[in-house]
Design goal:
By secondary structure, the chain is an alpha/beta fold. The chain folds into two domains: 209 residues, Rossmann fold (3-Layer(aba) Sandwich); 212 residues, Rossmann fold, CATH 3.40.50. The chain is 38% helix and 14% strand. It has 14 helices and 15 strands. The strands form three sheets. Strands 3-2-1-4-5-6-7-8 form an eight-stranded mixed beta sheet, sandwiched between helices. Strands 10-9-13-14-15 form a five-stranded parallel beta sheet. A two-stranded antiparallel sheet has the order 11-12. Helix 1 runs parallel beside helix 7 and helix 8 packs across helix 10.
Length: 452
């Protein structure tokens, strides 16, 4: 059921632009443009095209554009079997030319929002997208921002760019924030069946944006403003970051006390109320949890407010690769070997199991840490065939063989891919540091396994 916020009633004199756009949305004749065809944009394009809309995907990465126009997907959540028919029927076409915005009725921004080196928000991609939209803005267009950002971005950054056209928001054009909720690799919750939060700038903006998303998403959650929608997304990811930090800190304490943190959490998770299960690990990675909470921290400073929980959570999660390094050193010490100059094999470079995404991966952080110890590093990951370290060194994934495992002084499980045979890994390794409890079912070789 759609939840409706407390809003003022729309004026009885609905504008021609608004009604014309609503009519196009209802009969699927609206042309949709999506700026940014990455982990958010491409699945959204497929979802929108499947219900009958024509989609132009805009991306400045030309090889990506070429792949899309050949029906080849570079995103694990979108198969070629899904994409190719939509490309062949011209329901999805990719381009690097922003002039297609002039003929688009709905424009969705799905661009990256990284952090600067000082952990400040980098919204330059949003600004550039807004500048391009402003060039082609005309009456009867809906612009929605899906990129995760700090509360206020839609109204304070994007809207002023569009208002330079002289058009009136809520009458001539419509703007809303509707944060993406993509969980890469999640087969149960996809773009189509994950509840969609929508916050329009005016009641008319809300009506138009909700009408569009209702055509492609099962359930729409209406909120009172773009700022509220932006806060919803950063809170969701901050909630996860803080709880992951809590179990990571518990892991640090349990390590000192000689208690298995895995046993503690597994037992605690049997409580049928008041408990959500989070697991420790080598850190946090991906495009959301390591980044999004700092957008809120940065914005809070504007109000002379310090988000202490968020900052502390960041410190703890960022410390975990160093703790894993310490565990590796201890594991080698048991074999009478120093960390310096040892051979370390890392299993899993991706930040999440069964994915090829290694953005912000804690495995990369550990890799770079171990480089400082002159460790001889290699890695295996069936989803990440090659990677680049902080010094610009190129590395290719090794095959996971008995010989590869035996040649290492220590094997470290950083990503618990389903493809890995963990009994085989433990059997052929001198010692395994398991940061994910991936070897839980290996019962006969426990003396070779060191848990986080």
């Amino acid at each position: 059921m759609e939840q409706t916020p407390s809003m003022t009633t729309l004026p009885p004199t609905a504008t021609t632009s608004r009604q014309a756009l609503l009519d196009k949305i209802q009969d699927h004749s609206a042309h949709i443009a999506i700026i940014g065809m990455g982990y958010v944009g491409l699945p959204l394009a497929v979802c929108v095209a499947k219900v009958g809309y024509t989609v132009s995907g805009i991306d400045l990465n030309q090889p990506r554009v070429d792949m899309l126009n050949q029906g080849d997907s570079y995103i694990a959540d979108v198969s070629n079997e899904e994409l190719a028919p939509l490309v062949q029927s011209q329901q999805i076409q990719a381009t690097s030319d922003f002039s297609v915005l002039a003929d688009s009725d709905v424009i969705i921004i799905c661009v990256p929002t990284p952090l600067t080196k000082n952990r400040d928000p980098d919204i330059s991609y949003i600004r550039k997208a807004g500048e391009q939209i402003a060039r082609f803005l005309r009456p009867g267009q809906l612009i929605t921002l899906e990129s995760t950002t700090y509360p206020g971005t839609t109204e304070e950054v994007l809207l002023p760019l569009l208002q330079q056209s002289g058009l009136t928001v809520g009458e001539d054009f419509f703007i809303a924030h509707s944060p993406e909720r993509v969980d890469p690799g999640n087969a149960r919750y996809t773009t189509h069946n994950t509840n969609k939060v929508v916050g329009g700038f005016t009641p008319a903006c809300q009506e138009v944006a909700a009408a569009f998303y209702r055509k492609t998403i099962l359930d729409i959650i209406s909120v009172s403003s773009p700022g509220c929608a932006e806060m919803v997304k950063v809170f969701e990811n901050t909630f996860r970051a803080v709880n992951i930090a809590l179990v990571n800190e518990l892991a640090l304490l349990c390590d000192k006390m000689g208690i298995s943190v895995w046993e503690v959490i597994e037992a605690a998770s049997t409580k049928p109320f008041g408990m959500l299960t989070f697991w420790p690990g080598p850190g946090v990675g991906g495009h959301c949890i390591p980044i999004d909470p700092f957008y809120l921290t940065w914005k809070a400073r504007e109000y002379n407010f310090h988000t202490r929980f968020i900052e502390l959570a960041g410190e703890i999660n960022n410390h975990m690769p160093m703790f894993v390094r310490e565990k590796i050193s201890r594991a080698l010490g048991r074999l009478g070997k120093p960390l310096y100059g040892s051979k370390i094999l890392i299993l899993g470079m991706a930040y999440k199991k069964d994915l090829g995404d290694w953005r912000q991966s804690p495995a990369l952080d550990l890799f770079n840490l171990l480089l400082e110890d002159d460790v001889q590093l290699s890695y295996c990951d069936p989803y990440v065939p090659q990677m680049e370290d902080v010094k610009g060194g190129k590395h290719l994934a090794e095959p996971l063989t008995a010989e590869t495992l035996a040649q290492a002084d220590c094997v470290v499980v950083l990503t618990n891919h389903s493809d890995f045979d963990y009994h085989f890994i433990v059997e052929h390794s001198p010692v395994v540091v398991d940061t994910r409890n991936a070897c839980a079912q290996v019962l006969d070789l426990r003396d070779k396994i060191i848990l986080l």
